[in-house]
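quick one, 447 residues, struct below
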Amino acid sequence: MLDLGINRVMSRMATSGMLAMLVAFGSGQELAAQQSVQFASASSADAEVTFTADIAPILQANCQVCHQEGAIGPMPLMTYQDARRWSARIRNMVVTREMPPYQYDDDVGIQDLKYDPRMSDEDIATVVAWVEQGSPEGDPNDMPPPVVWPDPTAFRLADQFGEPDVIVRSTPYDVPAVGQDRWWQPVVDAGIPADRCIRAIETKPSVEGRAVAHHANSNWVGGTTRVQGMLSEYALGKIGEIIPEGACRTAPGGAQVRFDIHYWPNGVDVVDDQVEIGIWLHPEDYEPEYQQNLTLYYLNGGRGYDIPPNGTLMTRGIHQWDTPVRLDSWQPHGHTRLVAMSMEILRANGRTETVSMVSNWSALWHHSHIYDDDVAPLLDVGDKVILTGWYDNTENNRYNPDPDQWVGIGDRTADEMSHAWIAVTHLDEEGFQKLTEERQQRLISQD
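---
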């Protein structure tokens, strides 16, 4: 895996995101024809596939959370008429796995994730069969009852954890319709009087601000125990972060939160915009075994780089820790020229393991890939993490705004970035051995 080259990555590219949806729905591209994956054809199917019996449940489970009035999707997919109008494009988008928008390769690395909205092969084949059969409606009596969806402006993690214990809001900021990148860095009180362990975090731009909030990072400032560090990171499309049981990301009592919001004017005036951070806390008597933190890990070694006009680039970063660790989540980050990123482990004995790969990365959808507790990678002292990123500054990258420009590292949207956010639980030797033995026992019991 260490010699994975740019040609292989480029051959697998199918960059996704909301802009991808708009491009594909608004043009004549037959994206599905570009894919090597072949799904079942309805021409050989014995049973009729209908909207009411087969497609409506799939849309409810995978699509309607975004494709309803007032939500982020560009068109509703609530009725047969909605789906019939866009049936060919729906087929293309699900076959290319551009929708639902979750960029994570399903054929390499860890596949057991705590949040995984990827559509199953069976559901994709059903959509293909429906379209190839002419998109019939079916018996209205087969239609499932409508889903009562939560307010699209509400916190998404509230479905799992209830309403946040604390909501921290940035002070208002006016974003103009036209202009260059802007940064807003207010400091506000967190409203947490004593040290507490965080259970989950979700950073949520306003409805109007979703189109202009490129990212919104947050850090702790001060506090009774002077605990410093990262609270959370948000980038376009991200849902939130979930801290594993037994670990603690500390919210320091009496602290303030410093926002670092990167606004990107996008054609619409946004007045008095505010970003909200929902924080779910563990009970006051919660006793964690270990501390967790979220940190930015570079791929370029701090040296910077330049991508030539009409050129490509591969860059790497290697990281290790002084104590054993568990990797709880991984989130690639870059801008419009980044097209793929991977994370591997180089063990002290020389063995290499692929942890995760995203070969269709898009700056329009940032995801924190949160590993199930039983499979989150464990690293002993001497093991190393290898992060690799691939960049495409050619016309083959459909999100490249200008392939004739040199592109260097920087904070502006027109620049590039090269890092990954990784949530790490810091263990000791006893804890490392305990987790290792527990996993071995589960494997034995499963056999």
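The chain is about 15% helix and 30% strand.
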